Amino acid sequence: MPEQETLERAREDAAEGKSPSTQAGEFVREEIEHVREGKHGARSTKQAIAIGLSKARRAGVKLPPPGSSTSKQTRRKARQDSKASEKPHKASRKRSRAVTKALKREQRSSASPRALSRQAHQAAAGRSQKNRSAAAKKAAQTRKRNR
């Protein structure tokens, strides 16, 4: 369950009309913090991000489904998470405990600044030059507007 503070920040983002990915960023940030402070670990930076996105979908953030390059299992889980936000139910105590126990055994270095930087560079490398350029232009426009 996400922290109340994270839910509030995501709601504020939604009220300000920010994109679903920005709202989901709050949940990812929370997950990275959990790994950093030693609450649990993650096998990789991608896993920590995936846990954050899953929490966001379950909290009702209208994220688009993952692309066709992701596995069938991942797309199914994303649909399941989105559906779970419609009708919340109490999580299985046994499963929650098992997941927490498994994550506690994982490394903490997956949320280090170096690991996050490597992940960001890899993700950017997978995008086209045109796409990266468009994102930079959009960021520059946003920066100008928010001054």
Structure characterization notes:
The N and C termini lie far apart (35 Å). The protein has 147 residues and is mostly helical. The chain has one domain (4-111). 68% of the residues lie in helices and 0% in strands. The mean pLDDT is 92. The protein is globular and about 50 Å long. α2 packs across α3 (45-58). It has helices at 4-15, 20-36, 45-58, 72-86, 93-104, 113-125, 129-145. It has 7 helices and no strands.
Question: How are the SSEs placed, and which strands pair?
Answer:
Blueprint: H1 4-15, H2 20-36, H3 45-58, H4 72-86, H5 93-104, H6 113-125, H7 129-145
Helix pairs in contact: 1-2, 2-3, 3-4
Feature tags:
single chain, mainly alpha, 147 residues, 7 helices
Poorly predicted runs:
none
Distance between the termini: 35 Å
User: How many strands appear in the DSSP assignment?
Assistant: 0
Range of helix content: 55-70%
Over all CA atoms, what is the radius of gyration? 16 Å
What share of the residues does DSSP label as strand, in percent? under 5%
Q: Which descriptor suits the 3D outline?
A: globular
Mean pLDDT: 92
Please indicate the count of domains.
1
What can be said about the biggest beta sheet? none
The count of helical stretches stands at: 7
Q: What is the ordering of alpha helices and beta strands?
A: HHHHHHH
Structural class by helix and strand composition: mainly alpha
